[in-house]
Amino acid sequence: MRKKIVAGNWKMNLNYEEAKLLLNTLINSAKSGNTNAEIIVCPPAIYLAAFSDILKSQSAVKLGAQNCFHQDSGAYTGEISPSQLKSLGVNYCIIGHSERREQFNESYDLLAKKAKALLKHQIQPIFCCGEQLEVRSNNVYKEFIMKQIEDSLFTLKAEEIAQVIIAYEPIWAIGTGKTATAVQAQEVHGLIRARIAKQFGDKTAADINLIYGGSCKSDNAKELFSQTDIDGGLIGGASLDAAEFSHISNSF
Ligand code: PEP
Question: N or C terminus: fewer CB in 10 A for the chain?
Answer without folding.
Answer: N
